[in-house]
Structures are given as C-alpha cells and as structure tokens.
Amino acid sequence: MYELTVLPQDIGADQYVPDRSIFAFEPGPIREQPSLDTLAIVANFFLDGFEIEIFGQRIPTRQQFAYRHLIVEHNLLNKHGEKFRQQIIELKRQGRKTEPAFALALGLTGDPYTELLKNDKSPNC
What we know:
The chain is of the alpha+beta class. The chain has three helices and four strands; from the N terminus they run ββββααα.
C-alpha cells in the first residue's frame, strides 16, 4: 500500500549516471524512462516490504515529474477532502500505485502520470 519516492537533488547532467554501487543490496533493474519530455532514470526495489522508487531527471528537483506529482496529489487531497483521501487509500490497498489511484478516483483517462500533471499550477515547471 505504501511507497516512497526518492528524488535526487539537482545535479549536473555530466554527474548523472545510474550507478548500482550506491546500493548496499541489489535494487533490481535501473532503467531509463525515455517516454518523458526529460529523460528519467528509475530504480524500484523493496526493502523490508516497503516499495522504494528512486526517480531522477537532469533538471532541478522542483521541476522533476515525481516532485510535481507529489504537489498535485497534495493539492487534490486538500481540495477534495477526507472522502476522496479514503478512496485513494482504498485503491492503494487494492494494489494500485499512487498516480493510477488518483487518476481512477478523478475519472481521468489516458496515461495517469501525464494526466495528473495537467493539474499542476505551480510556477516551478
């Protein structure tokens, strides 16, 4: 039900190399996600039953998609209230990841990661 997304701080493109040596254990595949406007490097793994995702792009943290998703989700939870929050919790209990759960609760169609960003009103992007 719970997942944690780790966002690396803003680093230069020449320093941004996926390196397995940063892990004290085998993290699973580290992959490039080229479908985004800005290439992302993503690693997913489980630690003590808790899903961890490291997501980074070669842009300042506040412009990275994962950070922007967190802001949008926070704003949507505040806007739609407790009943909506409980609906998201239930969808996550059923095994959905966060963005797909929000998209389903909001009736969004298409790619949930892209559709949620359409709600981003922050000046940082």
